[in-house]
Design goal:
Largest sheet: 6 strands, mixed
Radius of gyration: 19 Å
Structural class: alpha+beta
Shape: elongated
Number of helices: 3
Order of helices and strands: EEEHEHEEEEHEEE
Low-confidence stretches: none
Mean pLDDT: 93
Amino acid sequence: LASTLDEATTTQMLHVMISQAPDLPFRIVSSVPMFGGATLPAMGAENEGSPLVEVTDREGLATAPDTDVPACAAALGFPKPKPTKAVSVDNPFATSLKTTAAAQAKALGKLGKLTQVHAPALEDAVSFRLADGGVVTFGLMKRTDTLAVLPAAKELVLPAEYAKLTGKKTVKKSLTLNNLESFVMVIPTSGQATVIGGEELLVSGKGL
C-alpha cells in the first residue's frame, strides 16, 4: 500500500500495488481517495508484508468481506435501503449519495420516480490483513440509477451531462445511468465494518 496527497484538494489517496512475483515490478491495481479525517489502521511489519485475504475468509473477523460489502450495498439503496448492523454507513460518501438522491427525487415530484441499486463486484476485490488481525478491503460496486417517467409527464428534459452521455435531450419512458463506485472498507475483529474512502464515476447511460 502507498499513499499520496493531492495538494490541490488536500485529499489523501490510497494506492494498492501488487507484484505477481519477486522479480516483477509492482503495478497499481486500485487508487481510492480517503475521507477527510479517516485513518487506515496499521499494516503488518514492513519486512514481513501484509498477507492477502480471500473475500470469503472470516478467520478472526466479525464478518467476512463478502458479507459486509453486499450489506453495505443494500444499505445504500434508494428509496428503500436495507439497514444493517454489520457495516456503518455513517460516512461522507454514503451521506452524499443519500442527500443527492433525496434531492433528485424531490425535484422530480410526480413527474418521475428514481431508484438506485448498488451491486457488489467482488471478483476484483483486494483484501489485506491488518496488524491487529482485522482486514482492509479495496473493492468496487456497480450502481444503477433508474429514472422512470410517470404519467404526469409527457417527457423529461435531461441535464446537459446526461444528454451528452445518452445522445438524447429528452426521455419519454426512462433514463438509466451506470456508475462505478470504488471504496476502501476496514473490517475489524469485532464490531462494525467502516468505509474510510470512496468515489463514484459515471460510465454510461441510456435514455428511452
